[in-house]
Amino acid sequence: MRISARADYAVRAALQLAACTDAGPLKAEAIAGAQEIPHKFLEGILNDMRRGGLVLSQRGGNGGYRLARPASEISIADVIRTVDGPLVSVRGVRPPELSYSGPAESLLPLWIAVRANVRQILEGVSLADVASAGLPENVIGLTKNPAAWTNP
């Protein structure tokens, strides 16, 4: 799985909004500056997130963006899907739509297992979990293996 810059920026912007719920709506410029995200790129991402029902926008001098639901109700998967589409695809196709034959036949269950594991992690972690540094134990456990931090 590859996390695109668009998905990374969207999650970071959503986390900035999750962390600042008491401050009222945040302007895109403030989010971009706090997270070092190119402002123009962020505007497009925020528009996608608005259309996807994750953020609300308010116009005017006191305007800006805020989360549409509590951060505890928005998963990291929700954010990624909103800006990038399916979490796992193979050549742009969802695994259940694939078919293989011969020695490659076992690839399909492998891709399904990868998708199931990615879903389990990303759907099981909310913006509130990340913003409060309270990742679930199953996620923390995966990071305790030193090999998880290196590229083979």
From TrEMBL:
InterPro entries: Tscrpt_reg_Rrf2, WH-like_DNA-bd_sf, WH_DNA-bd_sf. SUPFAM superfamilies: Winged helix' DNA-binding domain. Keywords: DNA-binding. Transmembrane segments: none annotated. This is RrF2 family transcriptional regulator.
